[in-house]
Design brief:
mainly beta; five-stranded antiparallel beta sheet; 9% helix
């Protein structure tokens, strides 16, 4: 079933060049990215949200093993340009886009508004608190 704004991944990757893909050893599943700079290595979600502060690479990799995919099932906040925003649920995440659905009261319906965000999503998508 296709949704308005749903992404079809064509294999092209638009992630920043300093993001290193991190895959699960057992099956090769992409868990997120490791971004290394002068402060250390930061574990990032599939759409670029930092899961922890910069540390050494083995610690950042462990964060991705434990949380990389699990955080996708949590509630997120989509900030609107110009202010405001709303609660969303992630429907899918690929290397080039993340598809979210509006989740008013924590519920996603067949007619919930959907948005496709290019990766990296920047500060528009963050955990719902």
């Amino acid at each position: 079933m296709a949704f308005p704004g749903a992404a079809r991944w064509d294999g092209s990757v638009t992630t920043p060049p300093h993001w290193t893909p991190f895959h699960r050893d057992e099956d090769g599943e992409l868990l997120g990215y490791l971004a290394t700079d002068e402060q250390g290595t930061t574990p990032l979600t599939l759409f670029g949200y930092p899961l922890a502060t910069a540390s050494d690479e083995p610690a950042a990799a462990e964060v991705l093993r434990r949380q990389g995919l699990a955080v996708l099932a949590e509630a997120w906040w989509l900030a609107e340009p110009g202010g405001g925003g709303f609660r969303v649920q992630i429907l899918s995440a690929t290397p080039d886009a993340v598809l979210v659905a509006r989740a008013d009261f924590g519920f996603v319906s067949h007619d919930s508004e959907r948005r496709r965000l290019a990766v990296p999503a920047g500060d528009r998508l963050r955990p719902y608190r």
